[in-house]
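Researcher: Structure for this, please.
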Amino acid sequence: MMLKEMLPLFRKQSKQTSLSVEKLPGEQTALKQQEFSRNLQDNLSVIKKLYSIPDNKDIKLREMYLEGFNKNAALVFISTITDVKSVEENILKPLTENTASNKMVKDIVAIQMVHEITIYKDAVKELNKGNALLILDGESKAYVMDCPDFQGRAIEKPESEILIKGPKEAFNEKAVVNISLLRKKIRNENLMVEAIEISERSHNDVFVLYMRGLANEKLIDNIKERLRSLDVNSIQNLSLLEEYIEERNYSLLPSILSTERPDRAASFLEDGYIVLLMDNSPDSLVLPATFWAFFHSPEDHYLRFLYGNFTRALRMTALFITIFTSAIYISITTYHAEMIPPDLLLAIAASREKVPFPAVIEILIMELAFELIREAGLRVPSPIGPTIGIVGALILGQAAVEANIISPIVIIVVALGGLSSFAVSDLSLNFAVRLTRFLFILSAAMMGIYGMTAMFVGGLFYMVSIKSFGVPYFAPMSPNYKSSNDTIFRRLTKNEYLRPGFLKTTDLQKKTNGE
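Model: Predicted structure, token format:
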């Protein structure tokens, strides 16, 4: 209790301390705040100082004489993030070949976007985005020309949300490409893409996507306010940003959904959710998120009605098997032996005759070994991945039993729970389930079925008490909201004519009810 009260004070003190120190030393902030002068050499002197030219090898500075303007000029760009071919063909060539004195810069260059800036801070910001900067002698401004070309991988198949039926495209690390994938699915002028800068040194942008006129304005403002209030030097991707904006950092349950599938993100947008995108992130964040969003898979709706609901039933069964199997084994072998049929009891007793450990230690050893093998299998290079599985199976299966460290039935129990956990497709919920399993194992070891029951009831109370950006975690089941009741099972797609009521969208009905 005392620790809980001290934590806010510590955070407050830390915040005050960070504000008292000098902000962004080494960033030459005063220099960036200056305005362009009318002298070209003075402007170039400042640019050279800001970018450490010529020490910085990928900063290109091209000085030239433009006959059409009868002026000296300079073109600055970063060759590693700028489309050099476009610079040569669409900027340099037209400018040097122009002889007409009555034309303006934007009328000569063949670039999509040309705009003017007057202070160095904007110049640095645009150059770091891959744009080119043209400075003319005698003008106290510079021209920004849009020609970025950041390197990245192509659009590939999803790796963590694999479907048999449905689209096979996945987000990649380029936000521009990801937005294009979403616009390909939502061809509506009300799809808004707003950019908010969230870091002071790296100048990382977060793109906030929502449907204008549909999404809840208060929810949009809340998310924007949280993003603008961030006071950090750098946030490289959405995985790091998630921890900054979620409400309960120490909660076992996730409150922000991450998806790498554009079709799934587009579906959420059309229902009134908010989606965040960012460069360097091959996924998107969906806000707010309920338990059912983590439980569902996009394939549920791509399969026929009965097939989709069958997979959901399997997934829910797997969820309970993962959480309870090991705990139930400990409970009935330690405290409630009378619940087991005599024949099975004798078989279990015979298999555990030479095992020196109590059931809870057996289970914990196997669970820990299973988690180690799973983690090692993820981290090792793919060519030796199968080797890890074979070695793990041999250790877990044969060697451990022959050494009388564990009994054969424990292998069945742990393997059943471990394999069932793979049916929970969402990574965040999967981690929550795996950790929850250990809590139930400990509660079963202490109080048997009664301990499990207390833990289950406490967990339910906790789940119904938490919220994600103001939305109850179990909505629309508890509390009840108007919706298409897409919870454990789904309806026929043609009968899902309501958007989730807990989002408080301006238009609850997304299609006619068929009448």
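Researcher: Any notable elements?
Model: The longest strand covers residues 59-66. The two ends are 58 Å apart (CA to CA).
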